[in-house]
Amino acid sequence: MSDHALKANAVSAGYGDTTILHGLDLTVPPGKITVIVGANACGKSTLLKAMSRLLSPHAGEVLLDGKSIHNMPPKALARLLGLLPQSPVAPESITVADLVSRGRHPYQSLFSRWSRQDDQAVDAALRATKIAELADRPVDELSGGQRQRVWIAMALAQETKVLLLDEPTTFLDINHQVEVLDLLMDLNQTRGTTIVMVLHDLNLAARYADHLVAMKDGEIHICGHPEDVLDEAMVQKVFGLESRIISDPISGRPMMIPIGRHRLNENRRAKP
After folding, report:
1. pLDDT digit string (tens) for 120-159?
2. Biggest alpha carbon distance in the chain?
3. What one-character DSSP code corresponds to residue 138?
């Protein structure tokens, strides 16, 4: 049985003549939640695009189950691997139900009809993201947080074995951020879906990740279990930030406390 292993081998990628990723190697643990963190413009989104075939590498390759994703038929790949990019744009006036239904596109063909299984997948995605009551509403009338949940529902309806999400908690308040991350953890635990996501919040990343990846300047700076990755030296090196690391009283995972320039200066002035 396939374990749906996703791997980047010596991947260099970028845009035009600008290279963002420099010979990057990354093995995504199958059936786990991998979270990618790093400063702005370090290559996190570029990596997700390369690993989803949205962007062709300049060099290297991305493998899924040992096969190059660039040699796989598009619909075959879309049944195994899905991507929720940053700030996706919905067609004008499309309803929530219609947009979520587009997640079933990989299962449609010229000769196949919409099936009961398609209906069940869409209904389950709407309920899981708590937007069933919005099904008939136009997407462009929703709040930013509601729209984000619609896009996540579309990704869930695709029922892929590997799901890549670029900042899935964007536009969400803290309550809905935790709700979405709990939903993704449920998906991972109940379906065994391999999840790879970019997050900005280091503490949420450490709490939800089985595997934490810290990027710097288009390369992997360090990766591993959050307890082995999130420390003061990493935060300083990757983010240029003075911090203290304590134990999260809820999860027991490492928790980053930023010091900030003014507090740091106060502490220095207080020393004899």
Report:
1. 999 999 998 889 999 999 999 998 888 888 998 999 999 9
2. 80
3. B
Q: Do residues 43 and 19 make contact, with C-beta atoms less than 8 angstroms apart?
A: no
SS3 93: coil
263: left (phi over 0), alpha (psi -120 to 50) or beta: alpha
3-state secondary structure of 210: coil
- DSSP letter for each residue of 107-173: G--SS----HHHHHHHHHHHHHTT-GGGTTSBGGGS-HHHHHHHHHHHHHHT--SEEEEESTTTT--
**Which residue, 242, 243, 238, is CA-closest to 215?**
238
The closest alpha carbon to 52, from 36, 74, 20, belongs to 74
Minimal CA–CA distance to 4: which of 54, 51, 60, 59? 51
Q: What is the pLDDT of residue 259?
A: 93
Rounded CA-CA distance 104/91 in Å is 17
Per-residue pLDDT reduced to its tens digit, 22-43: 999 999 999 999 999 999 999 9
Reported pTM = 0.90
Contact 188, 33 (CB under 8 A): yes
Question: In 3D, which of 108, 47, 31, 99 has the Cα closest to residue 74?
Answer: 108
Above 50 in pLDDT, residue 1?
no
Beta-carbon neighbour count of residue 76 at 10 Å?
Answer: 12
Q: How many residues does the chain have?
A: 272
Q: Angle at Cα 102 formed by Cα 97 and Cα 104, nearest 5°?
A: 110
The CA distance from 271 to 152, in Å, is 50
Nearest to 200 by CA among 231, 147, 238: 238
From 207, 227, 195, select the one nearest 82 (Cα to Cα). Answer: 195
